[in-house]
Amino acid sequence: MPSGHLARRGCGENGQVLVGLPPVVSPATRFLLLGSFPGAASLRAGQYYAHPRNQFWPLVGALLGEDLVALDYAQRLERLRQRGLGLWDVYAACEREGSLDSAIRQPQPNDLAALVAGLPRLRGIAHNGGESARAMRVTRALGLPVFRLPSTSPANASWSFERKRAAWAEAFAATGLIP
């Protein structure tokens, strides 16, 4: 199991506090995509958006004109870094049974201000879904454009892939990632 994803303390699922994944950024990061907290499949795999029905990788790939799904995880992350995209979550740790954001308890926030301070080329921040968007007061205070995007989670079945793609495309275009 990848290190740092499950810590045996507190009272999360099976008596565990769940610990999130590290940020995926580089000095070239221009746009930071923030989720809420990795789902169970992502924590088990030690990979962002590992659930096979999550539309994150197909959606971002479609926007960038690359088949990210066909790449292994390390290659996906390298492509994001090359294109100026960063990934992280608003919560560093929490208690939660299952994967639903509505089940998150005792969330511990990541230090978004410290991360952003180390990204000199950053031009915008986007929240992937409603739970992540609860931190918009924090991200707006960082002085950058902030976007609320529809969740790529399979739980957000009310939005079609094309509708999500259109909403995400606006944010990508506003920060200069796509024309």
TrEMBL record:
Q: What enzyme category does the UniProt record give?
A: hydrolase
Q: Which EC numbers characterise this protein's activity in its record?
A: 3.2.2.15
Statement: the UniProt record of this protein carries the keyword Hydrolase: yes
Where would one find coiled-coil regions in this protein?
none
What the entry lists under Pfam families is as follows: UDG (PF03167)
InterPro entries found in the cross-reference section: Hypoxan-DNA_Glyclase (IPR026353), Uracil-DNA_glycosylase-like (IPR005122), Uracil-DNA_glycosylase-like_sf (IPR036895)
Provide this UniProt record's keywords sorted from A to Z: Glycosidase, Hydrolase
Q: Name one GO molecular function term.
A: DNA-deoxyinosine glycosylase activity
Q: Where is the Uracil-DNA glycosylase-like domain?
A: 22-172
What's the protein name? DNA-deoxyinosine glycosylase
Lineage of this protein's species? Bacteria, Pseudomonadati, Pseudomonadota, Betaproteobacteria, Burkholderiales
